[in-house]
Automatic annotation (TrEMBL), chains A, B:
The name this protein goes by in its record: Cytochrome C biogenesis protein CcsA
Entry comment on modification after translation: Binds 2 heme groups per subunit.
Matching InterPro entries: Cyt_c-like_dom (IPR009056), Cyt_c-like_dom_sf (IPR036909), Cytochrome_c_Peroxidase/MauG (IPR051395), Di-haem_cyt_c_peroxidsae (IPR004852), MauG/Cytc_peroxidase (IPR026259)
Superkingdom of the organism of origin: Bacteria
Alphabetic keyword roster: Electron transport, Heme, Iron, Metal-binding, Oxidoreductase, Periplasm, Peroxidase, Signal, Transport
Range of residues in the leader sequence: 1-23
A single Gene Ontology CC term: periplasmic space
Amino acid sequence: MKMKALGAAVAFTLSAAGTAAWAQQVRDEPIKPIQPYVSSNPAKVELGKKLWFEPRLSMSGIISCNTCHNLSRGGTDNLKTSIGHGWKAGPVNAPTVLNSSLALAQFWDGRAANLVEQAGGPIQADIEMNMPHALALDVLQSIPGYVAEFKAVYGSDRITIGMVTGAIAEFEETLVTPNSRFDQWLQGDDKALSAKELAGYTLFRDSGCVACHNGPAAGGTSFQRMGLVEPYQSTSPVEGRSAVTGVDADRFNFKVPTLRNVEMTYPYFHDGEAATLEEAVDIMGRLQLGRTYSKDEVDSIVAFLKTLTGDQPQIALPILPPSSNATPRPNPFQ
Amino acid sequence: MKMKALGAAVAFTLSAAGTAAWAQQVRDEPIKPIQPYVSSNPAKVELGKKLWFEPRLSMSGIISCNTCHNLSRGGTDNLKTSIGHGWKAGPVNAPTVLNSSLALAQFWDGRAANLVEQAGGPIQADIEMNMPHALALDVLQSIPGYVAEFKAVYGSDRITIGMVTGAIAEFEETLVTPNSRFDQWLQGDDKALSAKELAGYTLFRDSGCVACHNGPAAGGTSFQRMGLVEPYQSTSPVEGRSAVTGVDADRFNFKVPTLRNVEMTYPYFHDGEAATLEEAVDIMGRLQLGRTYSKDEVDSIVAFLKTLTGDQPQIALPILPPSSNATPRPNPFQ
């Protein structure tokens, strides 16, 4: 955990003049503060950032990771379900990339163990970027700027898909959002939350939401059934975790989504059917806890949830190296 | 021209330790150096930048100005013709936004007199963003973060389309690319170009390319017929300037594109049919000048053209304010 410790040290210096003292959690709550992340390999992060914004990893030449996980928008596309190659609609709501490194697994059904495993999926999925890995590698290998940068990071002239996903994952590790008002409160700043927000958090905690929404990401620590007390009504054909385990008992089990930056990551649920936070809180209360929150209770929980918006990653837009004459051209209508 | 003078002064200070002295053009050539641009209204630029990256200005919620004029890629999408709402293909190659403020008019056919007039077009074009202006304004007006920012910039609670396009245009004014190696040479640095690059420029100039590709943008100063000596063969139905003037003599007249950053803005021509710079130079020589360049000549002109890549705008990715519960939701399949 050397890197984490370094991150904390840097942040402590930065906030020394402020009200919060990073990484010194004063309050012992089921939600933990987000720690800043400092990579030990900035060149790899920079390469990963280029690949993150790289539309040439798609068959059409216009879809990048950032299309559906937009870092201007809380790491999501704010659609019910995403639009991919050929204007096809995806089956699930795009989860935020922010703080995704803190989750126990990736994708709603957890079918990828980590960010490296995850990153290869959307590139080749026909309804997302629709790009065979072999062709993606041919594209990158034909671009002198990329060849030089992969060489500098990995020491090899031959780019592999593992290098691509490894660099993207290293960039994604940096996409954490510390310093939310809730974290400031966790770290001892009594004035960081209003009375209403604090009441909302207390209700959230004491009525049992934290059974699933816990840890630094306020989620992402377990798979849970959507519709525990009452069944969830949805036209979505997606069945969640059972697609990975093959176990019938896992039907409609999904990874608990993070609530960090939830004000920015609308709409909600795996099918994106809850348009507002109020709607999401109401449905969660009834379906997961068997509890009908009053309008005032919903409002106070929503007020609390909005305190989970942290410092958004500051991204300098990368300049992508131009294709060479040998670069395979995009094919939007393939 | 106070702002230009200020820009020059700032740049002069910045480059005092370097080899180039901004705005002191030593060589009198038909192509002029690009001057840095310093806005007198940074808040308006910042608002315009948000709107530039704002997918909620599209019906689908996923297309922004930056989708087709990608600032990571020389201000283009590097497609033959762009893909818009519903995966529809546009009729022409997306021109670069970089240095577009230097052109005599906007769009390939010059149908917009300036950047403000231009900015409204793609928002409502059904094959681009497909968003009626009235609905775009309803969206912005429903977002508290935007209401506050428009108020700060324009002093009004009521957002108008003129405010939207005005802010986008102000941001676009900043998207100039000074300090290319060719500009360094223009400004007196003899070592900025190799012998081959200089020979390429001399050939480019003396064989007549500068008749059209002149001024600071190396283009954008006139409309010219595509296929002057020999007709241009194309399956594109686009006829250019005559669509604006109604004058038959203007058929196949197009605004001369800028050659700034041309290494990054492939493919070339209004229909994007020239995949490489070599192909474009060969075709231009034959069709516009009646001259067949040898392979060596093409290579030296291409070497010169690559010296026109300037400093790309450094963009801090904006964080977009979240929608409110009242914000009209995107509709990708409308």
